[in-house]
Specification:
Blueprint: E1 3-6, E2 18-21, H1 22-28, H2 30-40, E3 46-51, E4 54-59, H3 62-69, H4 85-88, H5 97-107, H6 113-135, E5 143-144, H7 146-162, H8 175-191, H9 199-202, H10 206-242, H11 258-264, H12 275-288, H13 291-306, H14 308-322, H15 331-336, H16 338-350, E6 356-360, E7 365-367, E8 370-372, E9 377-381, H17 382-385, H18 405-408, H19 429-446, E10 447-451, E11 460-462, E12 466-468, E13 473-478
Parallel strand pairs: 4-9
Antiparallel strand pairs: 1-2, 3-4, 5-13, 6-9, 7-8, 10-13, 11-12
Length: about 475
């Protein structure tokens, strides 16, 4: 029998125990149980549970989280991340040690601010398509906006990561779009099902065979895009040689994608990435770079739709910056949208896109006054960490003002980690924040949003991403001309 085991003590530290049957855990939902436990044991520094044969330490206090995230030694991902390896290999998300350090150093320059600025054009273009889709719902019945937002985010990451326009917003039933969503579902299902962990056993189930089919679709797509990009670069080089470099290519400057930069990146020894290395990183960005941002955008719209006073403040700020124009969002505009930035941060506090993440300890360490041995898997519950009532009074309340600069002074640096923190923080966080602010600005300049669900109707699930199992149902009204509110 598999059991969940919770205790404020570790291994040889005896006093407190609480035991629950894992069948109950799965019936109620794994993430729901974690929510209950972290609230019930808020005064404990940590507790232990079992996921099948795997003991896991659960952390949800900033002082304990800091021990792990600030360390340059505890950078190895948990055993549970191995189920991402067939799809993502050992790219930036899943690798460790020297490979991770070398890869991080190589890839960091591709997220320079000037490069991210070029991506803003894609965000405006795809956001424009989203607006036209939303127009059809103005002054009509409530609708679920979750998929519309997600497909827009998928189009953005495809074009910025691979330079490929897949048109997901116009064709949600494309083979690649279906495969990327099904693969995410299969992985999170396997992570929570210890009986599916052995590869040989997994392939006996229909889920295992479905996993293999979707894996081929995803890898074939990425391989094809990489091959096309390499051929394109070779043609470009040949053209330059043919013209002796004396004239520029005609037409406007070609927009660069993340893939272009990977193809030219080198390590300290001047070595380039192999095809397999490049596929690992492109697939990693496809996995990490759309679902997380889409969830954050959906949660922000839901919260603003429930908090009209905050939404009015956003509208006033947008009117000050844009007037009644519908011009594209610029980098300078984003700098001026300070209240909207606080809205995004507060939405990520309440509904962090990644509600939990895990590490495996590389050496013995002391956490919350307890000695934790090397090899232990540690689970950081971001969702609970962000609800510490001593740091965020009335933690369930949506208050963007919490992130005004004067209100952040003296706050523990590890109590708010929507993009993780320390040496292994999210490399794409500036990209994500730019996308979230841009799309919210485009949507809220044109529409007033009303949320149609009570919190208990959301059906929050904490799988790979924190998402509402019942969607995000909203009503849209066209805004009057700017400044007339």
């Amino acid at each position: 029998m598999l059991q969940c085991f919770e205790t404020s003590c570790l291994f040889n530290n005896p006093p407190f125990f609480l035991k629950k049957n894992l069948i109950c855990l799965f019936i109620s939902g794994f993430f729901k149980q974690l929510q209950v436990y972290t609230e019930e044991f808020r005064s404990w520094p940590l507790f232990k549970l079992w996921i099948g044969p795997l003991p896991v330490m659960v952390l949800y206090h900033p002082e304990c989280v800091e021990v792990i995230l600030s360390s340059s030694k505890h950078i190895e991902k948990s055993y549970l991340y191995k189920f991402l390896h067939p799809w993502l290999g050992t790219g930036l998300l899943t690798s460790t040690g020297d490979k991770w350090r070398s890869r991080r150093k190589m890839i960091t320059p591709t997220f320079h601010f000037s490069i991210l600025t070029d991506f803003l054009d894609v965000m405006n273009e795809q956001g424009g398509i989203l607006l036209e889709k939303l127009e059809k719902h103005v002054d009509k019945e409530p609708f679920d906006v979750f998929l519309d937002i997600t497909l827009c985010a998928l189009d953005i990451i495809c074009e910025t990561a691979m330079g490929k326009n897949i048109g997901a917003q116009e064709n949600k039933d494309s083979e690649y779009v279906r495969a990327i969503y099904r693969m995410s579902d299969l992985i999170q299902q396997r992570q929570k099902s210890p009986w599916l962990w052995p590869n040989l056993v997994y392939m006996l189930f229909k889920e295992g065979r479905e996993h293999e089919r979707n894996l081929k679709i995803l890898h074939n797509f990425t391989d094809t895009v990489i091959a096309e990009k390499v051929a394109e670069l070779e043609n470009s080089k040949q053209m330059k040689r043919d013209t002796d470099g004396n004239c520029e290519e005609s037409g406007s400057k070609k927009r660069k994608a993340f893939l272009d930069m990977l193809l030219s990146a080198t390590d300290d020894g001047g070595n380039k990435l192999s095809y397999r290395d490049i596929r690992e990183e492109v697939d990693t960005f496809m996995f990490e770079g759309h679902d997380t941002t889409a969830a954050a955008l959906n949660w922000a719209l839901y919260l603003l739709g429930h908090n009209p006073e905050a939404q009015k403040k956003v509208h006033r700020e947008l009117d000050e910056v844009f007037g009644d124009t519908e011009r594209p969002v610029t980098v300078d505009d984003l700098k001026k949208l300070r209240y909207l930035e606080c809205v995004v941060k507060e939405a990520l506090r309440l509904f962090p896109s990644v509600p939990l993440f895990a590490r495996a300890l590389r050496e013995d360490c002391c956490i919350g006054g307890y000695q934790v041995p090397k090899g232990t898997n540690v689970l950081v519950i971001t969702y609970a960490l962000h609800r510490d009532p001593e740091i965020f009074p009335d933690p369930e309340e949506f208050r963007p003002e919490r992130f005004f600069p004067e209100n952040c002074k003296g706050r523990h640096p590890y109590v708010y980690v929507p993009f993780s923190a320390g040496p292994r923080n999210c490399i794409g966080q500036r990209f994500a924040q730019m996308e979230e602010k841009t799309l919210l600005a485009l949507i809220l300049r044109r529409f007033w949003v009303d949320s149609c669900q009570k919190p208990e109707e959301l059906g929050i699930t904490g799988d790979l991403i924190l998402r509402p199992s019942n969607g995000i149902w909203i009503k849209l009204k066209r805004r009057p001309h700017a400044g007339s509110e």
